[in-house]
# Entry
Amino acid sequence: MSAVPALAVEDLSVEFRTRSGVVKVLEHVGFSVDKGETVALVGESGSGKSVTAFAVMGILDAAGKVTSGRAMFGGADLLALNEHDLAEQRGRELSMIFQNPRTALNPIRRVGRQIADVLVRHGGATRNDAPRAAIEMLKKVRIPDPERRAEAYPFELSGGMCQRIMIAIALACRPALLIADEPTTGLDVTTQAVIMDLIGELAGEAGMATIFITHDLALAAEYCDRIVVMHAGHIVEAAPARELFAHPRHPYSAKLLAATPGETVSLADMASIPGGLPDLRRTDLPACRYSGRCERRLDECTQPLPQRTMGERHVVACWNPL
Amino acid sequence: MLPLLRHARYVLSENPVTGLAFGLFALFLIAALFGPVLAPYNPMQSNAAMALKPPSAAHWFGTDQLGRDIFSRVLVATRLDLTIAFASVILAFMLGALSGVAAGYFGGWTDRIVGRLADTIMAFPLFVLAMGIVAALGNEVINIVIATAIINFPLYARVARAEANVRRDAGFVEAARLSGNGEARVVLGHVLPNIMPIMMVQMSLTMGYAILNAAGLSFIGLGVRPPAAEWGIMVAEGANFIQSGEWWIALFPGATLMLAVFCFNLLGDGLRDIIDPRMRT
Amino acid sequence: MLNLLLSRLATAIPSILGVVIVTFMLTRLLPGDPAAYFAGLAASPQAIAEIRTKLGLDKSLPEQFVGYVGDLLHGNLGNSLSTGQPVVTEIATRLPASAELTLFALILAVAIAIPLGVLAAVKQGTWIDHTCRIVTTAGVSLPVFFTGLLFAYVFYYLLQWAPAPTGRLDVFLSPPTHITGFYLIDSALTGNLETFWGALRQLALPGISMAIFSLAPLARMTRGSMLAVLGSDFIRTARASGLSPRTVIFTYAFRNAVLPVITTLGMVFSFLLGANVLIETVFAWPGIGLYAVNALITSDYAPVQGFVLTMAVLYVALNLTIDFLYGLVDPRVRLDS
# Structure
């Protein structure tokens, strides 16, 4: 595997200002994605997966603020770009697919127009060619009868169809990096597989780097090269998918695996993870945010977290790994 | 009760304007209750020698074309204006809440009739309908109350209908029904009290509109008749003198009216935040 | 498109029916003898009896109702006592004055309220947002007749910027040739700049007073719905696609946010048509509101009834237009019908 990172996130920290205090949503998050590689960001809801993606894309809510870090992409730091330059990159070089495709599309604009808007904006087509190019994109995401569907509004299409439209919008300008944020949540199982295959295929064709955000480890294992496990705003473990499944080193990864139904695990073995995420508004958060739920905690766990290399591209942030 | 009070304190600290509104409300209440006692002059007493005098130390708000003290008249008028507004809001509440709850609880024909009635009233520009009603019923204060209540009726009926509809199958209603209560008792004794907080918010929100509406009607000569002291009619009397520069006759009653409506609107918003935070916009 | 129009028209029928029944009932609610009321205060018993037969008040209520509806269908709203003229013609000649004033106020209100609401939402928490909040809370609290008077005092009496607050046109100017009945439009069409300017000056104060009153609900709704839309998923998609801020705010957010604002227009019209009566009284504006108020003072009932009916029918028609407009903008409604 050629190790040319398409995106390298380093030391990313994000805070949210709320009525009840500052929430440290992300702390010192670092990971990279190579060209042509698919990396999964896995964790419970609230672990900071989506926020990481939003921060990289520069589409955090007004309340969110990046307090440190870099996101190197194509020789530039995305976090240091101004809004105008970043908007030039978004949709052209880096794209994103969201969950809930039905609400993620403009309800009163024809879907063909929505694809055309992106093409025109990034010079992918002229205003006159855009409708044709949009139909081409619809063909590419295998929407039957694309000429007619281009004239449809989102409410006239199924959830799966809408997600194909989202993919068409995201891939219209052949980006170098695609972030897919739980793209199959809310779709039925057969549609899920079709959408995942479609993303994988189109990304593979174009040699795109893909970040796949999910809480479903099984899905991540099936479609991704590497898995990055997040917990409460920290990255606790990053490893090649196979290795993580075979030898999870972080206690949290192990618990997460045990909670995932798979071929080798029967339902009886499924364990839910005790406790919840710590309150991130606390000012005295422990160095290891999992220590409150951890069965393997030691006295060292109050020390700043180590980054231990456990194998090729396998890093774990734990004082007492498995 | 205690959490509600704590929440009220939180809302007040978040929004000091609501506190100001409560203060103003207290002032208006005092004026309404003790106005005639507090007034420095007899509000009806004319005095030709003192006609059309601008504000002075003796007459804070000046005097009108008949030499009556405007401050006393504005003060005394508070009772009449607030009474009209209160009475019409209470009447609208009684009509709207009862029929709305019945419509929401029973559904079917009751619902259709109440809905059609509300729609018909809403098909009119409301102030124009109020004009028509007062003109038809006769030029009396009570008819302003009735007209204002009728044009506010659809709002109450709709809110009450929606809230009762949601609660129709709620556990506590089911329990009341199963313990042998008749339908009327369930509606009056259980559903209606349960939607009271929301209806209270509705009442405070429409209070300002009711004052405005009543004053508007008397401004065009409906309902309240001279020489009665009422804000709307006082503005109407002052209107004749604006073009000759005697501004104070219209200004003080008009400004007081404005302040009263402003106060009730703020109060309504504040009350809504305290009782029903989810309605907050 | 035709389906949409027809389905909207169908919803207006019960409203019109309700309006006719209510206006009919209003005449029958008159305390005492309606005939005596219609005949006026100084009428002899003989004249009253004559009126009773003429109005059909000696017949049964259903018969009277049929007669009333028949009259309406023939465009007969009765005669005014004080002028002796048919109410229909009097209202028709005065309607353009009211319509011009109301539409001028509406356009002004929309032109201020919508940009204000959009800006307040886009720049949430800034001074423009606070301005918007103050304007919306204060605006609904202003008694429109009082603001009108205040403006007349300040801009006519004190500053002398505005002409005397009486009527549509200065007495020294002659009204433009009648084309639409709207002085601004007619004078512009005939190229009569002096009259145009004069009419605009007369229109300014009453129009602004009404606009201030009605812009509050519009601005409030625009801000609220714009905020809701800006926080929605599809705006995030638009931003993630790199669309320019202008496209995101106007093409994507605003077009969606304007839908609830269109609905609010119904309420705004209810406000405006009511405020119209008060403002016409303050500025001696020769429209149907002033006509009705003058008729009220002289206990001339037919004009009042005609006025209430006209206003209600206009209002139903306006709501119909609003509904139709909404359907045009929102494909979900258009394609449903």
